[in-house]
Amino acid sequence: MCVGLSAKVVSVSRGTALVDASGARREVSAALLSDLEPGDYVMVHAGAAIAKIAGSDTDEADDLMEDFLL
Known about the structure:
- The protein is of the alpha+beta class.
- The chain is built from one helix and five strands; from the N terminus they run βββββα.
- A five-stranded antiparallel sheet has the order 3-2-1-4-5.
- Strand 2 and strand 3 form a beta hairpin.
């Protein structure tokens, strides 16, 4: 099974993005998304930002993940 997590982009530099996922910050590859900017929301999987998502979608994704883990 593959699981992606929603995260907010904090900064972008040289093909990597610093993202914040529920308070946990980490660097991920931004190579798949050419137009990322701080403040954008992304879906992260396997160390890469794989898609931009709407900020309102993050709450739904987080709720689904919480239900899945319980």
